[in-house]
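Re-running the complex after MR caught last week's input typo. The corrected sequence lines follow. Everything else is unchanged.
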Amino acid sequence: MTVMEKLVATDQPLLRVDGLTKRYGPRIGCADVTFDLYPGEVLGIVGESGSGKSTLLSCLAGHQRADLGRISYDGRDVLAMSETERRRLSRTDWAYVHQNPRDGLRMGVSAGGNVGERLMAVGARHYGQIRGKAVDWLGRVEIAVDRVDDRPSAFSGGMQQRLQIARNLVTGPRLVFMDEPTGGLDVSVQARLLDLLRGLVRDLGLSVIIVTHDLAVVRLLAHRLMVMKSGRVVEQGLTDQVLDDPQHAYTQLLVSSVLQA
Amino acid sequence: MIRIESLSKSFTLHNQGSAVIPVMAGASLTVAPGECVGLTGQSGAGKSTLMRMVYGNYLTAGGRLIVGDLDVATAEPRQIIALRRHTLGYVSQFLRVVPRVPTLDVVAEPLLALGTPAEDARDRAASLLRRLNIPERLWSLSPTTFSGGEQQRVNIARGFAHTYPALLLDEPTASLDAANREVVLTLIEEAKARGAAILGIFHDEGARARVCDRLVDVTGFTPRLAA
Amino acid sequence: MLDAGSQAEAYNFAYLDEQTKRMIRRAILKGIAVPGYQVPFASREMPMPYGWGTGGVQVTAACLVPEDRLKVIDQGADDTTNAVSIRRFFQRTAGVAVTEATSEATVIQTRHRIPEVPLTAGQILVYQVPIPEPLRFLEPRETETRKMHELEEYGLMHVKLYEDIARHGQIATSYAYPVKVEGRYVMDPSPIPKFDNPKLAGNPAIQLFGAGREQRIYALPPWTKAVSLDFDDHPFETSKAPHDCDLCGAKDSYLDEVITDDAGGRMYVCSDTDFCAGRRARGMKGRLWAPEPEGVA
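Corrected-run output:
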């Protein structure tokens, strides 16, 4: 309740992106992307392969450096930060969920160690408390507590993805980047993950930027939607409005190309 | 509570020779608190389109569309999100939920989104499901597996979970048996009594006669086809 | 140049050419200036295979002066193949005096131990290091580990200790136990037993670490702080076999376990042979000590 009240009370965007541009030589990665993201909001970014959505996400998360434009997080100029500051931010306030859990987990480390790493990275030095938090988070992502000492390589794909989410959320981030988080998962596993993500977003007041090509996923998860084509944002708005009343030719094509489930 | 002034709407089909199809022009109506207004007109006349515009699901081409103190026609997405969360409820004919989520949580979700403590939200959801005769053994199952009538009742419970000041109802009594139809009509009457402004589509004439204070024929909003 | 013995004429003093020694000394000085920081250096081919102490040998070669007295130990012992061959190497190429007595040596090259006898100011202890990177266990990318050192991102070290406790109920890492140096760099002290870790800190001697294959040199200048990593509820503890030395009776030295027969018989002896022999020479006796035949040291 307090989280929601705070959200309603804050009228400042958590993230402001203005004219963000990234080129690869003469080729455009993404160009002139501008948007605000408010606390508690989930922004979906859709577009086909090569549309620039992944480039945009990695520029936002600081994995790549943008050529032009501004990113301001909670009033701070992200592109002007030192790397130390930015990496600290990405271990505390930010989180990044990879499409392939293998990219976001340490496969040789137990589930508990995976979840505890971010805590230890920010200075936690009490084994019992670290383990307690890890166990708590495994429960929250519906992984049986007796798996705490197993390595993720012994987990199913859906469990690995949930473990990656727990590992990312344990430090209470405010902004989560997700790259096709339901990619490669069976439909029933996807549904479970979507439900989990919705609950976490709601209960923790997370702001999320989620890149996907799955329109059904954004309809259920994202409040707002941005459609990208050839590196540019061609349309943005309320998710259901963009999907049900698309204005741009490309969005109309995209929506009409999807098989109705 | 709801005020619509000379609203217009057209669809541009970019992938079909950029055909522009005007579907609404000069639509105007008001719904006062405690009032229920029914939309009438032939199938395809634009009843659902108008409802969707009020909900912000369709963009408007021109005119004003005031819900509470927000002009939905020009509002920012996040303002509409807040409007939907606090002020404007919508019972559509289709249930769109994440598969696997238990029915009780589906119904409680609008309250949880407002920050209602989980226990209170579930209590409220349970009492609505009970009133709408959804057997308790189904509450822990996902409504995606339910029959059409059951899904419709879950949808209604969800729409009435929070006491929205404004409500959009699209065929709320369709595919319901007499007993459940009675429950839904009572819910609507209770909402009116607490001051909710309701805009609805009712094919069920008896229901329309019982809950609607006024009817508006949307045929009058159909644009005259220009050359 | 020097009169370094009959066979050493063909070599420069201490085998390496002066340019190379200067390059290594620069790396050593940089290492001393930034305690715990791994300084890259252009490791040379040495006339022995990697794993035999090529890093330590190069550091020793760069430190030696003709007046030095050298001691070489392997796991605490002066008389194992590795120690003997490195000692002979410097006898031949540098002609320096050698000793087995810790207190008499000016330079000590070691593999896997710190001598029991406390070191003194002016002494140099040179460690042979197989893998200098303490973060390697969990992060194989060299570019990433360098970045982690730069930004002091050491959470991973504790992940390793966490895994230990989760799996074994306690920190099971018993050698190469990481330390944080002067509150800044996390350092691998080479595979010394954690029993020796407390001796790293506040030591009056200069401690130099050389990794030949990995081409890294790092250092602990005298009186440097080196804190063994741990958890609040699982503090760092040294450990040794719960016995006294069976030869000299020492209660507080690091012990090797020696299997004496195929019926479960075993004995525990000091791993530091000089320390043990010194005690016995002073008349201290352990459980199984017996006078040895003439002619054996």
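None of the earlier attempt is carried over here. Residues 248 and 283 of chain C are 8 Å apart (CA to CA). The first helix of chain C runs from residue 18 to 33.
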